[in-house]
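new request in #modeling-help
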Amino acid sequence: MTTALVHIDLTADGAPADSTAALLGAAAALGEPVAVVAVAPGTDTSTLASALGRLGAARVVVAEATEVGSVIATPQVSALAAAIDREQPSVVLLAHSIESRDVAGRLAVRVGGALAWDAVDVAADGDRVVATHSLFGGAYATTSMVEGGLPIITVRQGSIDARAAAVASPAVEMLSVEVTGAVATVESSTPVRPSGRPELRTAKVVVAGGRGLGSPERFALVEQLADALGGAVGASRAAVDAGYIAPAAQVGQTGTTVAPDLYIALGISGAIQHKAGMQTAKTIVAINTDASAPIFEVADFGIVGDVFQVVPQLLSALESRR
Amino acid sequence: MRIIVLIKHVPDTWEERVLDPTTGRLDRSASERVVDEITERALEAALALKDRDKSIEVVALTMGPGESSGAIKKALSMGADAGIHLVDDALAGADAMTTSATLAAALRDAGADLIIAGNESTDGRGGVIPAMIAEHLGLPALTFVSELAIDGDRVRGERATETATSIVSAPLPAIVSITEGMPEPRFPSFKGIMGAKKKPVASHSLADLEPALAGSRQGASSIVLTCEQRPGRTGAEPIVDEGDAGTQLAAFLAQQRLV
Ligand SMILES: Cc1cc2nc3c(=O)[nH]c(=O)nc-3n(C[C@H](O)[C@H](O)[C@H](O)COP(=O)(O)OP(=O)(O)OC[C@H]3O[C@@H](n4cnc5c(N)ncnc54)[C@H](O)[C@@H]3O)c2cc1C
C-alpha cells in the first residue's frame, strides 16, 4: 500500500488542529495515513501520538527542531522534506490554513513536487490522485492532477466528511531536522481565545451580520441568534471594516468560504463578493429592509423587514419551541 | 532601498467570472480586468514607506498577457517609479509552479531589498505564491501580515492566523504578503497620471529570463482535468414582514428540521 503523508497543524496549546480529522480521513482513502508533526525538542509525544491515532493516523512521524514555534513555516518544511525522503509517499495533504499554505508552497519548491490548492475533495484514480476544486464561490467545479512529481494538496477546511478508523497505538518514529538560512521569526504571540462557538469553516449553522446592524453594540443581536441556533458568527466585509467584529468572521471573496446547512444573512445586501463565500449553503435565509437587495436572489426564505423587529420575535419563537 | 511590488490583473469581481470549459482557464474576453485590489494595497504599503523615505525606489512587477501592461500603467500613475512586465504566450494558464519559478527568475537579480505581494488573488485564492518565491530565492517570508514597518535592517508586521495573532519579523532582503487589513490604496493623481508616461517599463519574455529561469524551473506541474459550470441558485420570493415574520421564520426552520 502507498503512503499518504498528512501534515499536522497544531493549536497554540500543542494539540492537533481541527482540520486534522478530515485530512486523515481523506488520506485513508489514498493510502496508509501517516501523520507528520514538527515539535520543539522535549515535547510530550505520547499524548500527541495517541490523539493522532484516535483521528486515524496509522503511524506518526515526529520531527524535532528547536525553531518550532519561533520560526514561520520552515521547520515544518524541513520536517516534511525529511519524512518524504524516508516514506516515499504518493501524496502529501495539508490544511488550506494560513500556516500550512506557506509550508505547502515551500515544500513543493523544495522537493520538486507540484501543488494543488484548496481542494474540496481528493480521490484515488488508479495510481494518481485527483483533486476537486470549487471556484468563484461554487460557480465552477474543476478537477486537477499533478504530473511529473509528488502531489502536494491543500484541503479546504470543513469540506471533507470522511473520517479514518481510530488506531489504538500508532507507531511513532522520531526524526530531528535542521532549519538553514535566514528565517522569519515569531517575536510574540497571542493565542486566539476560544469563543465557545463552533468554528466558522466547519459550522452547520452560520448567522452573519452586515452593515445593516449599525453598530458594534447592536451587532450583538447576530451573536444572540447564533447562540440560540448553536451556530458560528459570520460577517460581511462592511461589518468588519466598520469594526463591528473581528476580521476572522468575514465571509466572502476575500474572507472565509462557508457551506453550512443553514446560513442566515442579517442586514447584508448580498454583494457578489459576499455571495461568493456563502451561496453553496444548503438553506439560505435573509432579512433585509430593502426588497431589492441582491441577497434575496439566493435566499430560500427571505424577509423584507427590520432585523431589530424580526430577530427578537424569532428568538422568542425559538425559545417557546424548546 | 528598492521595493518590488507584485501586482496582478484579474477579472473584476463585480462581474460574473467565466472559465473556458475545455481548458479550465479564465475566459479573458468575458469580463473586465482590473488590478487586483489586494495588490493595489501591496503597492500602497510600498508607497507609504516611500512617503516617509524618498530614497526608496518602488518597482511594480507583473506577469500576464499584453493587456496586463494596464496594471503597470495604473501602478506608475499611483506613484511607482518603474515597471517590469513578464509577458510570453507560453505563460498562458501557468500553474503555481511555473508562476513562482518565473517570478523568482525575474526577481533573482533585480536587487530588491523588500518584495511585497498580496496574500492571495481574487481569481486564484491559493495564497501560496509568495512562500514559493521565497523558497526559490532562499528568502524569509512574512506572509498574511496586516501591519508592516521597516525597522533598520528588518521588516516587521502583525500576522493573524487561525490560531494566534503574532508579531513577526525578518531580516532584509525578505518577501512580505499583506492582507486586506492593510490600508486602502490611494487614487492616482492627475500629476501621477501625466508623469506615468515618462517612467521606464521593461518587458521580458521567458527567453530573456534565462539562465535564471533554468535554475528555478521544475518538472512537476498541476493540470486541469475537467471543468464544469454549476447551476446558479434561484431564491424564493421574499415575504414582507407584517408583524409576524419572525414567527413564520421559526416555523420554516422547524419544518426544514434546521432547529
Ligand atoms: C475585491 C473585493 C473583495 C471583497 N470581498 C468581500 C468579502 O469577502 N466579503 C464581503 O462581505 N464583502 C466583500 N467585498 C465588499 C462587497 O462589495 C460589499 O461592499 C459588502 O459585502 C457589503 O456589506 P454589507 O452587505 O454588510 O453592506 P451594505 O451593502 O451597505 O448593505 C447593508 C444592508 O443592510 C440593510 N439594512 C440596513 N438596516 C437594516 C435593518 N435594520 N434591518 C435589515 N436590513 C437592514 C440595507 O438594506 C442593506 O442592504 C469585496 C469587495 C471587493 C471589491
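bot summary: The mean pLDDT of chain A is 96.
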